[in-house]
Amino acid sequence: MLRNIKPKNARAKRFLKNREAKVIENPKTTLFVRGSTTSQTVNDALKDLYALKRPNCVYFGKKNEIKPFEDEEKIQFFSTKNDASLMVVGTHLKKRPHNMTFIRTFDNQVLQMFELGIDKAVSMGEIKHPKCAVGMKPVLVFNGEQFDNDATYKHIKNYFLDFFNGDETDAVNLNGLEYVISLTATTENKIIFRTHTIQMKKSGSKTPRVELQEMGPMFDFTIRRTSGPKEDLWSAALKVPKEIKHKKIKNVNVDEMGDTYARIHVGDQDISKLQTRKMKGLKRSAPEEQDQKEPKKPRTTSNK
After folding, report:
1. Predicted confidence band at 286 (pLDDT cuts at 50, 70, 90)?
2. Predicted confidence band at 32 (pLDDT cuts at 50, 70, 90)?
3. What is the predicted pLDDT for the residue at 163?
4. How far is CA 88 from CA 67, 114, 160, in A?
5. Most confident of 28-32, 168-172, 250-254
6. How far apart, in whole angstroms, are the C-alpha atoms of residue 147 and residue 210?
7. Which of 134, 250, 279, 302 is buried deepest, with most CB atoms within 10 A?
């Protein structure tokens, strides 16, 4: 592990302060690492994912002797040295060809890992269509009930949401939605990864007509080995600081999309006094009106 470094000047002090824990986190940095043996398919996949993740990422072009599932110390070393909580390692072995390992860390400890094998790949360079601008956040679409029911698929969905999260924004500009990433879960333990650019066309109204155009990369992944999160580490990672925790208001709830719902309690209402449309069929008869009238109190006389 790395030793604790004491700052010797103001620049080093600012650098170390930027790495300290914050209430509002910095955009997460992702490391793209080549293993000791890789294939051209793996190299192209790493470069394409690096192009989608820029600028919050670092690419290691040289080969590194790293085995994520066998040696976690090297992952912790990379995470601590580069202040990165996300990592993608590409390897190619006879046992597991065209292998991509997606890693997430918390507090420089391995939180979870997913090993996805590439069955089929189409790189961005093979598709001669316009590409998205650097730093744009994609629209993520998850197709398949597995992403809601299966625990492994749930963690994979959560990982990719965190992977492409980028900077926090309060509003969305329609012109800033340049591309969409679709992940489809199949019954054969596979995930279909597709990327398309969003084309806004004239429709004759205020709402534009939307068309999708292939951009790449495109992958057919097969889920291989997985390492789920430990309960204590996972609960610590999900802990929300008190400073940004919303105060709970009675009978008011907020859903995942940020919409607010409130419950209003109304007292008992006398429907008999409700004013309705006057119709002869609804008019009360004389006996009914007599029953509705309260009985008169008898007069009291005083004897003088």
Report:
1. low
2. very high
3. 94
4. 12, 10, 12
5. 28-32
6. 26
7. 134
Indicate whether 284 pLDDT > 70: no
**What are the angstrom distances between the C-alpha of 270 and each of 195, 267, 273, 274?**
59, 10, 6, 7
pLDDT class of 271 with cuts at 50, 70, 90: confident
C-alpha span between 111 and 167 (Å, rounded): 22
Tokens of 236: 């610590």
Q: Give the separation between CA 204 and CA 207, rounded to whole angstroms.
A: 8
Residue-wise pLDDT for 195-205, tens only, equals: 999 998 888 88
DSSP characters over the chain: -PPP----SHHHHHHHHHHS--SSPPPPPEEEEE-SS--HHHHHHHHHHHHHHTTSEEEEEEE----TTT-SHHHHHHHHHHT-SEEEEEE--SSS-SEEEEEEEETTEEEEEEEEEEEEEE-GGGS-S--PPTTPPPEEEEESTHHHH-HHHHHHHHHHHHHT--S--SS--GGG--EEEEEEE-TTSEEEEEEEEEEEE--SSSSPEEEEEE-S-EEEEEEEEEEPPPHHHHHHHTPPPTTTPPPP-TTEEE-TTS-EEE--------GGG------GGGPPPHHHHHHHSPPPPPP-----
- Cβ within 8 Å of residue 135, ≥6 positions away: 54, 55, 166
Q: 124: which 2 tokens?
A: 């961005």
For the chain, what percent of residues have pLDDT higher than 90? 47
pLDDT at 16: 72
